[in-house]
Amino acid sequence: MKGWLTIAGLGPGAAELITPQVSAALAQASDLVGYLPYLNRVPLRAGQQRHASDNREELARARQALQLAAAGRQVVVVSSGDPGVFAMEAAVCEALENGPASWAEIDVRVLPGITAMLAASARAGAPLGHDFCAINLSDNLKPWALIERRLRLAAEADFAIALYNPRSKARPQGFARALAILRTACADERPVLFARAVFTPEERLEVVTLGQARPEMADMRTLVIVGSSLTRMVPRPAGTLLYTPRSAYPAGGV
Ligand code: SAH
Fold this sequence. Notes:
Helix content is 28%, strand content 24%. By secondary structure, the protein is of the alpha/beta class. The N and C termini lie far apart (58 Å). The structure holds S-adenosyl-L-homocysteine.
């Protein structure tokens, strides 16, 4: 059989949020490639090979997947959420751009998944209902100074801001600095959502003000959304509804 490579998003956690297209590709695959915790979310199938790797070896993993497909295997690279958002799809594109000419023939497909900021937003209300941006707080692949600049400018432009990878053991200080930067640009009342492990049994949602936000409220399984100046917190018995109205700026000004 001819080899192929599909890069598939597994969504935020719940099996019901994996698209039927992704499930079909996973069932057809001879080989699965990815970070072990993501591979563990895929049901085992007899005869299917699994190639687990460390989270920080994305390019090597992408090359390995392309080599397998070039050798005639049916390969699915798995990512959490959407594979195009801070994940494996870009690494596969980079490996293809710099790889041997023979890889041009490989049938490469991308199957989208529900990314963490959309899953978190759905659980909280509609914090991303108006213009927003997404910033990855990990400085593994970019200088911290760039992250600070983007945070400042995003706050100045009054975007709602989704923060991926807010805090890890290897980078305990970054998120505290990010909060400090946001505090200089935004009022203390600005709503902040801490959405941990959404659509998993460990899910925890917390809505606080920027003044109340503490670095310890986030870990690597948390997606943080900082509201824009329009974002509103509405108390309800089931938890705070967080939303950004679509048209609340005064005509002609911000
Ligand atoms: N490709 C993924 C993002 C990978 S970066 C996606 O599209 O969602 C990993 C970061 O995503 C985590 O540090 C966290 O900020 C966020 N994340 C992933 N799954 C999550 C979940 N179920 N709940 C909250 N945040 C999540």
